[in-house]
Amino acid sequence: MTDKNSQHIDAKGLNCPMPLMLLKKTLQDLPAGVVVTIDVTDEHAELDFETWCERFGHELQCLNQEQGVWRFQITKV
Fold first, then answer.
1. Which of 28, 40, 45, 72 is least enclosed by beta carbons within 10 angstroms?
2. Where are the domains of the chain?
3. Are 45 and 18 in contact (CB under 8 A)?
4. Which residue in 6, 8, 12, 16 is the catalytic one?
5. What is the pLDDT of residues 12-65, one digit of tens each?
6. What is the rounded CA–CA span in Å between residue 62 and residue 19?
């Protein structure tokens, strides 16, 4: 579900750095507090998103993996 307080990005099948680039582009136009959910299949995504969130202060709320798809929920601060 996507509304004014949440966004969803389907980045399955894309390799680094594309999932992170899509996330950055999406977040730049959103106000603080919006939750972005991104689904990825890139095996390096976990480290990429954790490092990026720590560096820029965004909150990584949820991280899970099921059947080769990682789902990240990131709140823009």
1. 28
2. 6-75
3. no
4. 16
5. 999 989 999 999 999 998 999 999 999 999 988 888 999 999 999 999 987 788
6. 17
